[in-house]
Amino acid sequence: MKVIVVGAGTAGLAAVHTLKKNGVDVLCLEAGTTAGGRVQSKRIDGFTYDLGAQFFFRYYDTYFTLCRELGMGDELVRFPFRAALPNRKTNRLTPILASVRPRDLPRVIMDLAGFRGVPLKAVAQLLPLAPTLMTRNRSLRFTDYESSLDMDHESFADFTLRKGGREVLEHVIQPIASCMTLGEPEDIAAGYGLGLFWYMINGLWTLRRGIGSLSERMQEKYGDSIQLNTPVKKIVIEKGKVKGVEVKNGFIKADRVICTTTVTTLRKIAPDLPESITGPLKNVRYSECCHAMFALGKRIFPEGWYAAAIPRNTGSPMAGFADNSIKSRFYAPAGAGMIHCFTFGRHAHELNGMSDDKVTGILFNDMKRFVPSMSRGYLHREIVRYKEAVCLSPPGMLTEVNTLKKQGIGDVRGLQLAGEYLYMPSVNGAAQSGIDAGERVLRLI
């Protein structure tokens, strides 16, 4: 049996791993120059750039299992999510540690005592949201989301306005939600938004030598089965059955095809899919990001700070910016900074059309509003432009996708789908979807 996996992102690599460890003949076709999708790292002069995804959450059981299976369990490290918000009058940043761990309680209390980043009215409006988060947290698992579908038909913004109010939406919910999704709280369902907050306060993790280390390990291990620079032009479907794929140099026959691309690409390369498949996927949406990274000679945040989340009402093009040197000693030389700027929404779209120098100027000017002591110099930079950065899970999307998963995609025999859109969007969901697709193929052998 010949299996083709389209795409070597997280879902594609997880599918390849699942099939290869069971002895299946698989060929993975990747349009880009390297595997990993959004989970890639680059290293320059002692600095590690995480080019897409930035961290894992504590409950990423699937991804952590993959790390252990591939001998990288000891590379997983936790780092603090101590993030700042700007005072709306002065722009002065004050941090707070987002954690529910008992051992972190003293630090949380100290931060709260001096916190000036949120108006008191927003704090008061935040309190009515807490009971839902605490009583429903078991429903908010990214890969076990069915019991949260009652919260899938309302946007996170509408939920916040109904339970809390405008102040907490603009000063707490929006900046954090935008940092996590690179979209707006109006763009994501309430269940997904609450899930993001619950995962966030339970801790952040990475791989000590870069979040892309696992992708690199899988590319190294399965390199003979991964063909780079090979975009699939079409998934060939005849009489309701997959026949193979068309690439630049011709046709490759296959008994099974696992498509792990975004839904946008799926529609382009599989135009013959029936409405029973394309219909439930019609609401899948992605955010856009111009992700700018700068290696600095020294840190711009005090010791122990990770990031700043910036409310949209400041007019900033950034959802936030972070100093990744806090992640591990492999991210930057001692005392140096590794700054990541995350643009979002219409700002990202505009910046993606500008030159690197113009993007750099705009973002440095904006960061200096919040960190006036920051110099304009940098050692080197990387700017990565994502037209499709993160799947947003807008209201109703998960419900429709769940229907598709339950009824299956048997209308096209031999085709399997994988991607973060099949769960609450996350790196963990992408990995789980790839494993699911691989296991379905194994059951059919």
Written description of the protein model:
- With 445 residues, this protein is α/β, with parallel strands linked by helices.
- The chain folds into 3 domains: 3-39 and 55-73 and 209-284 and 393-443, FAD/NAD(P)-binding domain (3-Layer(bba) Sandwich), CATH 3.50.50.60; 81-117 and 286-391, Protoporphyrinogen oxidase, mitochondrial, domain 2 (Polyamine Oxidase, Chain A, domain 2, Alpha-Beta Complex); 119-198, Guanine Nucleotide Dissociation Inhibitor, domain 1 (Orthogonal Bundle).
- Helices cover 33% and strands 21% of the residues.
- The protein has 15 helices and 20 strands.
- The chain has helices at residues 10-20, 61-69, 105-114, 120-126, 130-135, 156-163, 166-181, 190-200, 213-221, 263-269, 275-278, 345-351, 356-370, 397-407, 427-444; strands at residues 2-6, 25-29, 41-44, 47-50, 56-57, 76-79, 82-86, 93-97, 204-207, 226-227, 234-238, 241-247, 250-253, 256-259, 289-296, 307-309, 318-323, 337-343, 380-386, 415-417.
- Strands 8-7-16-17-18-15-19 form a 7-stranded mixed beta sheet.
- It is globular, with a radius of gyration of 22 Å.
- 50% of the residues are buried.
Detail the topology: elements first, then pairings.
Elements: E1 2-6, H1 10-20, E2 25-29, E3 41-44, E4 47-50, E5 56-57, H2 61-69, E6 76-79, E7 82-86, E8 93-97, H3 105-114, H4 120-126, H5 130-135, H6 156-163, H7 166-181, H8 190-200, E9 204-207, H9 213-221, E10 226-227, E11 234-238, E12 241-247, E13 250-253, E14 256-259, H10 263-269, H11 275-278, E15 289-296, E16 307-309, E17 318-323, E18 337-343, H12 345-351, H13 356-370, E19 380-386, H14 397-407, E20 415-417, H15 427-444
Parallel strand pairs: 1-2, 1-14, 2-10, 7-16, 14-20
Antiparallel strand pairs: 3-4, 5-9, 6-9, 7-8, 11-12, 12-13, 15-18, 15-19, 16-17, 17-18
Helix pairs in contact: 1-15, 4-7, 6-7, 6-8
